[in-house]
C-alpha cells in the first residue's frame, strides 16, 4: 500500500490524463466541447497548474473511453490531491516551492536511492549533524535554523512506521571521517546510522565508497536521488541538488543517465554488511 501524498496524487493525475489524451488521438477541440471547458482552462489542466472539477474530470475520462473503474481511480486521485494537505505544504514561508515538491514526492515514494558524496544524506542525519549543515547554509538566516531542523526531522518520519520508505544510501568513507560539527557530533551521527540500520534492516541500506575504490570520486561532489513509487502508472523520478539549486528531473533520458551513474557508483561500494562494519569501526575510533 502506497503512502498517501497529495503531491504524488496530483502528479499521477496529470500524467494519466496526458497519457489518455495521447492514446486517444482525438481532436482537442472536440473533447473541450464535450467536457465544456475553454482552451485556457484546458492548457492549465494539461500543464498541471489546475485540476478539473469532479464532473468535468468524469466527462473528460468518459470522452477518452475510460471505464467506470478507471474513472473512479482518477476521481480518487483528485480527492487526495485537493482534499489532503501534507505537512510540507503548511510552511510556505519557510519551505521553498521546489523543496515542497521534493518533500511531497519523498513522502509518497516507495523507495529512494540517494547519492551524496561527502555528506551523510539528509534523511539519515542526526539532530546535531543536521543543525551544523543547516547553519552553514548561507541561504538560511540564523533565526530559521531550528525551524529548518524541525522540517528535516519531520522528513525522517518516513523511515519508520507502518509503511516505511526503502532507502539505499551511497556515500563516501570521507563522510565518516570529516568532523562535521566536531568529533562529538560526528560520533553521534555515526551511532545514529548504526541504530537506524540495525532497527530497520529490511528497509535501510548503506553502501559506502571506501578510500580504496579506484573510481570512487568519479561523480565528484554530486548529490542526487532516484525516487520510485508504488503505483505502476508512475515512472522513476530524479532529484538533483547543488548549493544554490534543486530540481526534479522528469525527462526520461536524464533519469536514465542518473540511473546509470548510480549503478556505476554502486560498483565502487562495499556491500551493505561491510559498509555497516566500516561505520562501526569509525564510530569506535
UniProtKB/TrEMBL annotation:
SUPFAM superfamilies associated with the record: lambda repressor-like DNA-binding domains (SSF47413)
Superkingdom in the source lineage: Bacteria
Domain HTH cro/C1-type: 33-71
Originating organism: Nocardia bovistercoris
Protein name, UniProt field: Helix-turn-helix transcriptional regulator
Stored CDD domains: HTH_XRE (cd00093)
A molecular-function term among this protein's GO annotations: DNA binding
Amino acid at each position: 500500500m502506497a503512502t498517501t501524498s497529495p503531491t504524488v496524487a496530483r502528479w499521477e493525475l496529470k500524467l494519466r490524463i496526458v497519457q489518455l489524451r495521447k492514446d486517444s488521438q482525438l481532436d482537442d477541440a472536440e473533447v473541450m466541447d464535450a467536457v465544456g471547458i475553454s482552451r485556457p482552462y484546458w492548457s492549465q489542466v494539461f500543464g498541471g497548474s489546475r485540476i478539473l472539477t469532479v464532473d468535468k474530470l468524469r466527462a473528460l475520462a468518459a470522452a477518452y473511453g475510460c471505464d467506470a473503474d478507471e474513472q473512479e481511480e482518477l476521481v480518487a486521485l483528485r480527492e487526495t490531491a485537493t482534499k489532503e494537505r501534507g505537512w510540507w505544504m503548511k510552511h510556505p514561508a519557510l519551505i521553498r516551492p521546489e523543496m515542497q515538491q521534493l518533500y511531497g514526492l519523498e513522502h509518497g515514494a516507495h523507495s529512494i536511492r540517494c547519492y551524496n558524496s561527502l555528506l551523510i544524506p539528509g534523511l539519515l542525519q542526526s539532530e546535531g549533524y543536521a543543525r551544523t549543515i543547516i547553519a552553514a547554509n548561507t541561504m538560511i538566516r540564523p533565526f530559521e535554523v531550528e525551524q529548518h531542523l524541525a522540517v528535516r526531522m519531520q522528513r525522517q518520519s518516513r523511515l519508520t512506521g507502518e509503511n516505511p520508505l526503502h532507502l539505499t544510501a551511497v556515500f563516501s568513507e570521507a563522510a565518516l571521517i570529516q568532523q562535521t560539527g566536531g568529533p562529538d557530533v560526528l560520533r553521534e551521527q555515526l551511532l545514529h546510522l548504526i541504530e537506524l540500520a540495525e532497527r530497520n534492516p529490511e528497509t535501510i541500506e548503506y553502501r559506502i565508497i571506501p578510500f580504496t575504490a579506484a573510481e570512487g570520486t568519479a561523480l565528484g561532489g554530486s548529490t542526487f536521488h532516484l525516487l520510485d513509487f508504488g503505483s505502476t502508472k508512475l515512472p522513476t523520478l530524479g532529484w538533483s541538488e547543488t548549493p544554490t539549486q534543486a530540481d526534479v528531473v522528469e525527462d526520461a533520458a536524464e533519469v536514465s543517465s542518473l540511473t546509470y551513474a548510480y549503478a556505476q557508483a554502486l560498483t565502487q561500494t562495499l556491500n551493505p554488511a561491510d559498509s555497516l562494519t566500516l561505520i562501526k569501526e569509525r564510530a569506535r575510533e
